[in-house]
Write a structure and sequence with these properties.
By secondary structure, this protein is α+β, with helices and mostly antiparallel strands. It has a single domain, classed as Nucleoside Triphosphate Pyrophosphohydrolase. Helix content is about 15%, strand content about 40%. It has helices at about 50-60, 125-130, 140-145; strands spanning about 10-15, 20, 25-30, 35-40, 40-45, 65-75, 90-105, 115-125. The chain has a 4-stranded mixed sheet, with helices on both faces. Strands 2, 3, 4 and 8 form a 4-stranded antiparallel sheet that branches. The longest helix is centred in the N-terminal third of the chain and has 13 residues, at about 50-60. It is globular. It starts with 7 loop residues before the first strand and ends in a 23-residue tail after the last helix. The relative contact order is 0.25.
């Protein structure tokens, strides 16, 4: 039996893997470790499904609507850096649900989320060439799975109504 630190926690995140013409939509964002690249991604908020979370996060970080078509996969990783006194990381494991789908309309007047500097389109080779700029090792793992054709039906995910404001489980 493995004994984990009492400070361990899992953090659920979502990410959108969006490809057009051989290039992938990424965001360049300010992090405590400097400017980093990531897919449009973020944390699952209370009261929302995974699908609603990825739609929201994509809009907030790119100003584009997003329609998920498939679950790409579920991934786990620990952060590149352990944290600092100003930003204690603790022992966090990120559980990422990555989706692929259709990028929709741009809301040109919409401000990008705090910390997002810009959106960029990069080829898989360009992404592979700069691992030091990746916010997470999951960035490239998701790209490689997308290119390998991995896809799962969205109905593989179930959200009980108690999560989104319905009945409460006892």
């Amino acid at each position: 039996m493995c004994i984990m630190s009492h400070d361990w926690k899992a953090s659920v995140t979502v990410a959108a893997v969006i490809e057009r013409g051989g290039r992938f939509l990424l965001v360049e964002e300010e992090t405590p470790d400097g400017l980093r690249l990531n897919q449009p991604a973020g944390h699952l908020d209370p009261g929302e499904s995974l699908i609603h979370a990825v739609i929201r996060e994509t809009l907030e970080e790119t100003a584009h609507t997003f329609e998920p078509r498939a679950l790409l996969g579920c991934y786990m990783a620990r952060p590149h850096s352990a944290g600092t006194a100003a930003r204690p990381g603790g022992d966090i494991t990120y559980v990422r649900f990555a989706f692929t789908g259709e990028l929709g309309a741009l809301d040109a007047g919409r401000q990008l989320d705090v910390g997002i500097v810009r959106t960029v389109w990069m080829s898989a080779d360009e992404i592979r060439a700069c691992p030091e700029r990746h916010r997470t090792p999951l960035l490239l793992a998701c790209i490689e799975d997308y290119l390998a054709g991995k896809r799962f039906a969205l109905d593989a995910l179930y959200t009980h109504p108690s999560v989104v404001g319905g009945g409460v489980l006892s």
